[in-house]
Design brief:
The longest helix has 67 residues. The protein is flat, with a radius of gyration of 38 Å. By secondary structure, the chain is α+β, with helices and mostly antiparallel strands. Helix content is 45%, strand content 11%. This is PAB-dependent poly(A)-specific ribonuclease subunit 3. Its main location: cytoplasm. GO terms for molecular function: ATP binding; poly(A) binding.
């Protein structure tokens, strides 16, 4: 067994215990059925659920089908009465330090999903999201594609194309062919997105002085609603006139068009009554016009408006530029509802004008584009952005959304919003909803960070344990150090945690048992456990607090020896360096003495010759 059965005492009130004892009698000689996994009863006329419990695969207790059927029958006739928990039920004594509150022992095996153990692990959805982002950051292309790419592109390496390279697609927003790459940046120590723009032949492969200053200014700015711009350079690695603009890489993101404007059913509802070959379409395909089925919730629309208003306000006021990229293909969605304006600064950097006389008109055009963007996302198709379908689109909006939202979108489309402060005032009542969502998500991430710290704590404990168990002493001063005293107990504890077997002597792997046991050691629980040697000749009853004390003491001994060894090594190095210095000094003195002797002998020789 993984651990000794837990007796759930002091859970039920006294009145519940008395009712259970009075309403249930057991005939002598009959195997007593299960009363309740949490009941605390004793005597001949009562039954302990633990007599029939077995270790489950999740580390908890489970019961046979006969016992469960008996329990259901008793509950139907009223022999068993459930406890009227108020909000959060108590936990058995001695378990509060390592177990979460709740009747986990009453859960069925099929109900023990990842959600049940969320108190010990990171949230499953968040873990999957992070895992997907890591995969998106680490994926590479095949060898055939690598051979067609330059090894380095400026200061960036490991290029991975995100689009087709053979025929670069001309961007509708910029009017120039563009290709995107993912590349690794040693400077930023993370992957970045490289947007290669094929410039006209007559365009100079250099930035103007004002364009360079603007690029430097943009590279220092960060905003949650705008994809960060980081670098720009020109290259002839593709044998053409190309400029490469570097932006922050946002893994696992999609465009607004891919997320909300790619439904073919929504597209056909706005389409023409004629086919491509100019034949009349059947009436069955036209009898169902545009409907409000599947339109975005109004809260989502307001969230999009608040985020995009936040980004436009940053661009208009702090950067003093026009956005110019409010297109469904240039707005990214990440993590459900987080919007970012992509490719901002591309036109401004490459085709910079020192004085823009049309800045006010361009900023006013941003609000018109914002209105079209939101209408297209709400209606679910890019056809709703066309002027010919404006009446149909607003009919859908009026049937689905409140007059405040419809009126704001109408003002945006008609160009009545010319200043960002007007838009800020219109969306101000809904900023608090967005702020609430952001704060809730921040609190959720902080809780998950605490769980990550718990995993780090358990990892450190496992490192301590593995540093002690079965350590060999190469010096021979104490060869049996790891097999005697506290270290032997830790070895048995290691087997108890990681080397469990079932009744067929097959490995029994239960992560819940491992984590629960390590948590008990970290908490210094007074609960007892049974340690058995591999030959089953030694059986020792200890507490988790004893294990913690032995682990800390043994590891402290290793740390002391490590520090002493480092000191001895440093002393030996200093001693050797001093000896080398002394030898060098003696050699210098010897050489100086020899030179002096030579000079003296030479002088004596000259004197003798002169005489």
């Amino acid at each position: 067994m993984l651990s000794s059965p837990q007796t759930y005492t002091n859970i039920f009130p006294t009145s519940i215990k008395s009712n259970a004892q009075a309403s249930f009698k057991v005939d002598p000689g009959v195997n007593p059925p299960l009363i309740n996994p949490g009941s605390d009863v004793s005597g001949d006329e009562t039954v302990s659920a633990l007599n029939h419990s077995q270790p489950g695969l999740s580390g908890s207790q489970y019961y046979s089908s006969r016992q469960l059927e008996t329990t259901r029958d008793l509950q139907v006739v009223g022999a068993l009465k459930a406890v009227n928990w108020i909000l959060v039920p108590p936990v058995p004594e001695g378990t509060a330090a390592h177990m979460r509150t709740g009747r986990v022992h009453e859960l069925k095996s099929r109900a023990c999903s990842d959600r049940v153990f969320s108190a010990s692990y990171m949230d499953h959805e968040l873990k999957q999201v992070l895992h997907n982002k890591i995969q998106a950051c680490l994926f590479t292309c095949d060898e055939a594609t690598k051979e067609k790419l330059p090894r380095n592109l400026g200061a960036y390496t490991d290029l991975v194309p995100l689009e087709t390279m053979h025929q670069p697609r001309t961007s509708v927003t910029f009017g120039l062919p563009c290709v995107c790459f993912k590349a690794w940046s040693p400077r930023f120590n993370r992957p970045m997105l490289l947007r290669r723009v094929l410039l006209p032949v007559e365009h100079e492969a250099a930035l103007s002085p004002d364009g360079y200053l603007l690029a430097k200014h943009l590279s220092e700015l960060d905003h949650p609603a705008v994809v960060g711009f980081r670098d720009v350079f020109f290259t002839n690695a593709f044998n053409d006139n190309s400029a490469v603009l570097v932006y922050e890489y946002t893994p696992c993101s999609s465009t607004l068009q891919q997320a909300h404007m790619s439904d073919p059913m929504k597209l056909t509802s706005f389409s023409s009554p004629f086919n491509i070959n100019r034949t009349v379409r059947p009436h069955s395909s036209l009898k169902n016009g545009p409907s409000d089925l599947g339109m975005l919730p109004e809260s989502t629309i307001w969230s999009y408006l608040v985020q995009l208003t936040h980004g436009i306000r940053f661009i208009h006021q702090q950067v003093q530029r026009a956005c110019g990229v409010l297109d469904p293909t240039k707005v990214l969605i990440q993590d459900g509802t987080h919007l970012r304006i992509n490719c901002f600064g591309l036109k401004d950097v490459l085709f910079h004008r020192s004085e823009d006389p049309h800045l006010t008109e361009d900023q006013a055009a941003d609000f018109v584009q914002l209105g079209k963007l939101i209408i297209g996302a709400a209606c679910g198709t890019s056809e709703a952005l066309q002027n010919a379908h404006r009446t149909t689109s607003f009919n859908l909006l009026q049937r689905t959304y409140t007059p405040d939202l419809v009126s704001l979108l109408r003002n945006l489309i008609c160009g009545q919003v010319t200043d960002v402060e007007q838009l800020v005032r219109a969306t101000a009542p809904f900023v608090y909803d967005q702020l609430t969502n952001v704060c809730d998500h921040s609190d959720f991430l902080e809780r998950q960070l605490f769980l990550g710290m718990e995993c780090d704590r358990l990892f450190r404990m496992v490192c301590k344990l593995q540093s002690i168990v079965e350590r060999s002493d190469r010096n021979g001063s104490n060869p049996d150090w790891s097999e005697t005293g506290d270290r032997y107990m830790l070895k048995l504890f290691r087997d108890f945690v990681f080397h469990q077997t079932d009744h067929l002597s097959a490995p029994f792997l239960d992560l819940a048992h491992i984590i629960t046991t390590l948590n008990k050691v970290e908490a210094g629980s007074s609960e007892r456990l049974c340690l058995v040697s591999r030959d089953s000749q030694n059986v020792i009853i200890v507490t988790y607090a004893d294990i913690k004390q032995w682990l800390d003491a043994s590891f402290a001994h290793l740390v002391d020896r490590h520090r002493q060894s480092r000191c001895d090594i440093r002393l030996a190095q200093h001693r050797e360096a001093r000896q080398q210095q002394q030898q060098a000094a003696s050699m210098i003195q010897t050489e100086a003495r020899l030179e002096g002797d030579e000079q003296t002998s030479g002088a004596n020789l000259l004197t003798s010759e002169n005489s």
